[in-house]
Amino acid sequence: xxxxxxxxxxxxxxxxxxxxxxxxxxxxxxxxxxxxxxxxxxxxxxxxxxxxxxxxxxxxxxxxxxxxxxxxxxxxxxxxxxxxxxxxxxxxxxxxxxxxxxxxxxxxxxxxxxxxxxxxxxxxxxxxxxxxxxxxxxxxxxxxxxxxxxxxxxxxxxxxxxxxxxxxxxxxxxxxxxxxxxxxxxxxx
Amino acid sequence: xxxxxxxxxxxxxxxxxxxxxxxxxxxxxxxxxxxxxxxxxxxxxxxxxxxxxxxxxxxxxxxxxxxxxxxxxxxxxxxxxxxxxxxxxxxxxxxxxxxxxxxxxxxxxxxxxxxxxxxxxxxxxxxxxxxxxxxxxxxxxxxxxxxxxxxxxxxxxxxxxxxxxxxxxxxxxxxxxxxxxxxxxxxxxxxxxxxxxxxxxxxxxxxxxxxxxxxxxxxxxxxxxxxxxxxxxxxxxxxxxxxxxxxxxxxxxxxxxxxxxxxxxxxxxxxxxxxxxxxxxxxxxxxxxxxxxxxxxxxxxxxxxxxxxxxxxxxxxxxxxxxxxxxxxxxxxxxxxxxxxxxxxxxxxxxxxxxxxxxxxxxxxxxxxxxxxxxxxxxxxxxxxxxxxxxxxxxxxxxxxxxxxxxxxxxxxxxxxxxxxxxxxxxxxxxxxxxxxxxxxxxxxxxxxxxxxxxxxxxxxxxxxxxxxxxxxxxxxxxxxxxxxxxxxxxxxxxxxxxxxxxxxxxxxxxxxxxxxxxxxxxxxxxxxxxxxxxxxxxxxxxxxxxxxxxxxxxxxxxxxxxxxxxxxxxxxxxxxxxxxxxxxxxxxxxxxxxxxxxxxxxxxxxxxxxxxxxxxxxxxxxxxxxxxxxxxxxxxxxxxxxxxxxxxxxxxxxxxxxxxxxxxxxxxxxxxxxxxxxxxxxxxxxxxxxxxxxxxxxxxxxxxxxxxxxxxxxxxxxxxxxxxxxxxxxxxxxxxxxxxxxxxxxxxxxxxxxxxxxxxxxxxxxxxxxxxxxxxxxxxxxxxxxxxxxxxxxxxxxxxxxxxxxxxxxxxxxxxxxxxxxxxxxxxxxx
Lengths: 189, 832
Prior knowledge:
heterodimer, A: 189 residues, mainly alpha, two-stranded antiparallel ribbon, globular, disordered N terminus, B: 832 residues, two-stranded antiparallel sheet
């Protein structure tokens, strides 16, 4: 699996030119403007299209877990690995002792969960939900409307009534959705 | 010929009466509709009546023509001025009507106007464009006009003939297709596109022709006089598809990019190939009316096909380069820039046609070549003009062709032959299916991302015929084709069938194939999360960038930068006046934005539902519905990464506003955090940056990168005396900056993560290289078109600087007037 070969940061010598890993490596090099060997926030912020994405900053933050200021190539790949399309034969033959691959449904959901849960307490509080909603909605929606939508959202997912959405509740509320297809990027196959 | 006073007055009186009556009924109709509470009928009724009015005027005009013909039949058909002198003894008529003089332009204008009104109505009812392609509408309008002309027994309607079509109506359509074609995906998929479009057209043409010939041999159908050549010719003209017309219908299904390109590319090349085939076969028909065709001739035909195609492309490229070169020098007379673009494209078409090469391919190649360089050289307004004018010309052409089609539908010149027509329909579908599945099976072996069966079904079903087939059928020479009427009828039937039936059902088909579970209503929870995931996916795709077969492209890009750009694009001299002009413009824009309340948080509208739902209060279904409405209408759209091309319209700029809002909000939050007093590494007070936006094209904002030497200018600008400006004078660091023309200073700002993690500002400075001359100028002074801005074209290290710097300067911007609201009490404001 190409995930395991991510440890080398030098160009792998005998990989076919068409693998997505090599392309990601080129992309990493292209983003790393000053040839530092790692990416900082600034490098990612210079992707113009991310600037007009409402979740741009959060997406960038997800590349820097645990307060790091730099991400090297393995870290870069690790984040992107969440978006690999799920092969059908992966789940059948998987050895249960091995850790779950990064692009499993659980891990994809966990990735999304982390976009909401900024303080990493394992729950999406109402306040955090409100902030995400605010990011995604145009300016003509009033605060009151936003708050009532937030209340409704939390209320729909919250089962144990603590006013926040835990990861399990989050997963359960999205069980009908085809997460694997929504969070897969074809070119990363 | 004059009509004297009395009939004219009668006519005028009639018309005014009619108008009064019509307006009266419009008012009534509107009132009734309101009272009955059907708001959607209201936009319908006025334009409906307007349409009727125009139609009546048209029929008045044509009946008037008949009157004049009848009444003055005995006079000589004099030229207007000669008539005046010969009738010198009559009284001078105060009112006179001379219809013949203006007949053709008048009627043509009326038709175009009618079609435009119909389009307005079409788009007023907002669900309609998603249901059927716009060609349906045009055909209906054409049929209507045809019915009017037939009904009023118009003696001499304007008619399309070969030279009008090939010289005036066809070039704009092809030019528009070539100009708006996205070049990067086109060239990435060019192998598949050429394989599919070229071979597909040939297979279709010959397949349909041969099958029909076999059918014609059957004596029972009465078609034995149609020989092989005629059938082949018919096959070639009926295989000219126009699939772009249906693209708008399934646009929202997020068709993936390669599929989009295949459809687009096929439409682009298909016309050219059909016309080339058509001409070759006509030449054959003329040559071999009496003899048999020899193999030598067939070989010559094939060779000619290739030469015609390649030669046309070659011509087009040459003309493209010439025009790009000329636009390099038109700084001071930017008004003629659109003229140059259009004239050179047209010239390429004509020059190719002179040598019997393919003018269509020439004009396409010219547009593709020219586009990149011209867009860099040409001023912003010229660029907009070119785009809009191109759309306008092509839509006028197409409208006219459809109207001619409608006119000839409703007429007496039909020959209906059940066998021929039915088998034509059947064979069209069969051969298209064969060509799609066979050709894609082969090309899938060589592609990195093969096309799925689903994609192939979509391509098969999008084989909608359009104006091209009709024109070619209509222009068949009657001398060589005694059964021309039958061909025309068959073509019309195929067009009607494909446009209406396939056009209307392709939308549901694509949605069905997409297997989206849209039948159940999603909860608010799910809607929110789905949208979040879409945004996330779009964002990650942007991080991954565009991948392609980069070796060949890189080589071309290097060649392009090293040689071509130097020759063809302007030397950039950002005069301070130009830069300051843009500053002025964006300041105006900024003021506008503030005034319309985008930034101010107090400008939010009063909510309709004032309830605040506390805790676990149960919500009524109406509340949920209204919430859902709020969400669907107000959530930001996901950035469309797949291409979006509408044949009849330029893309509306809704995403611009969204992008502005997002950026401004982001800058606000950044500034909010900065106000808390984080210090910068170089010791300047926080928030002393002053970089502003440029106008936003298609959702990609481009702040101007500030040239330090004109930094002082903003202080003197009188229009913003109330808005305190904060100047950033990076002199200690930029000693040599002023000498360098294109230095870019990028001062990206980073959001402050929660939890009080330490911040840092990066201050990388990009020094430009010679090769970025064009790019730098482009960023500074002009918003880039969508396709350029979207793709990050370069994979190699040096090129990524350009893109990265573009990205940096693009978004690292701040909105100056907003400071007025948020920082009016801050002592920092007073610094100049």
